[in-house]
Amino acid sequence: MRILLTGATGYIGQRLLPLLVQAGHAVTCLVRDPRRFELPADLADRVRVVAADLRQPESLRELPTDFDAAYYLVHSMSTNGRDFAAAEQQSARNFVALLDRTPVRQVIYLSGLANDADLSHHLRSRQGVETELGRAARARLTVLRASIIIGSGSASFEIIRDLVEKLPVMIGPRWLNSRCQPIGVRDVMHYLTQVLGRAECLGQTYDIGGPDVLTYRQMLAGFARQRSFRRRIITVPVLTPRLSSWWLFLVTRTSFSLAQNLVDSLRNDSVADPAHSIEAAVPHRCMSYAAALQLAFQRIEQNEVVSSWKDAVSSGVADRHYMDYVQIPQHGMFFDRQHLRFTRPPGEVLDNIWRIGGRRGWYKVDWLWRLRGVLDKLVGGVGLRRGRRSPTDLRAGDSLDFWRVLVADRAARRLLLYAEMKLPGEAWLQFRIVGNDDGSHTLEQLAAFRPRGLAGRLYWYALVPFHFVIFKGMVENIGQYGDQTATPVRPQRASTG
Questions:
Q1: Confidence class of residue 119 from pLDDT cuts 50, 70 and 90?
Q2: Are the CB atoms for 337 and 444 separated by under 8 Å?
Q3: 278: Cβ contacts below 8 Å, ≥ 6 apart
Q4: pLDDT tens, residue by residue, 424-458
Q5: Which residues contact 70 (CB under 8 A, 6 or more apart)?
Q6: At 496, is the pLDDT very low, low, confident or very high (cuts 50, 70, 90)?
């Protein structure tokens, strides 16, 4: 079957794509920027990638139309501002206009689960998208409505993990008593693949959920038991939605916009309605909440996290055009260049570069990096707690603490990061390993900053003393980690271009 997949760079899309290919389908991925969509090597020659933006109908006019079915996995829950509902519906309308030029017979949409009368802004938006997709002339809509999705790297899993692991005593808002029906991401994948092409699923809306109906308080307690933590949870009625959003934002790795929309939605119960059961069409026994947690931690421990919500541009964290910064500007810049000559195998130093950040840290005065992350979080930035998808693997588009990976080219021995912290300017951090004529190698470390006005220049000059300690120590420790055969090269002092 010929399939059009939207949202291929998102948490669900990255997991669904290889399953569709393995099933023998011909998949075309619609992405905004192919430069940040790095296909796995075993899929690169089996998947077609096309560039278009669903918010810009003119970008859709020249797209291929040879599709039999389509997945619509585009969500804007983390978009800043309260007008995301209009943007979501406009994208859905543009998508329908595209479908009406194709022979597509089925559209599959993953929506949010709630059967309350008074829905949150976010859940009303999801239902508005359902309505728009249902207007397609020939394509019949299949909707899967899911509650909390539990899997390694999912936003729900990571937020629960942050709360339980960091807070021995939790003073939480009333929405902790709301009920939900969590479902494992593996079960979501099963339903997404199994409804494809089924005649009885055309024009149907299904509620999907696991076997457990729990309050959010019970979910936190269950996570604590799974990890053998003793935690006390106290709910109070005085936390307003805004205070609850700040609570989530400051304690967890979520962005503030995502925290706002989550809090808005968590006041609604999200429990499946038996009248919308999928069991008759797709019989399947979903795993329990405890089993989904266990599987998620197995994937983390085995370094097999396929995707993370933080790596999607729709997370509201990444600049949608961040790949435009893949070349460091040369004019109007401040630079700090450090060099280290070494004789150990370059692959060992490259491994150290590829493990930077996350739990390993930044190789020099980690407490200063953590302090910078706390300050960034306090002013509404992403902070340092996003961590990384994998402790050893990096790819373009990954989030790495408060950086975004622009280039991760092991063959060229180059890693380029772009800062997503709050700054009065723009910042890059690059690592390269180059060979020397005598058979040794040199590790080049470049910190680059393009200031914005006087504030940006004052910011750089104020940090120059710290840079001397941090950047010089970083390059030495990266080169010497586990070895003592590296020799510092006289650094070039900070300069403007």
A1: confident
A2: yes
A3: 144, 191, 195, 206, 207, 208, 284
A4: 999 999 999 999 989 899 999 999 999 998 999 99
A5: 3, 4, 5, 6, 95, 99, 104, 106, 107, 108, 139
A6: very low
pTM for the model stands at 0.72
189 has which bridge partners? Answer: none
Cα diameter, the chain: 74
Among 143, 138, 133, CA closest to 201: 143
Q: In sequence order, what are the residues at sequence separation of 6 or more whose Cβ sits closer than 8 angstroms to the Cβ of residue 224?
A: 164, 230, 231
Dist CA 170 CA 214 (whole Å)? 18
15-64 confidence digits (pLDDT tens): 999 999 999 999 999 998 787 677 877 887 889 999 999 989 999 988 99
* Cβ 370 vs Cβ 476: under 8 Å: no
**Strand 334-342, strand 214-215: pairing:** unpaired
pLDDT at site 317: 44
Terminal C-alpha separation, the chain:
54
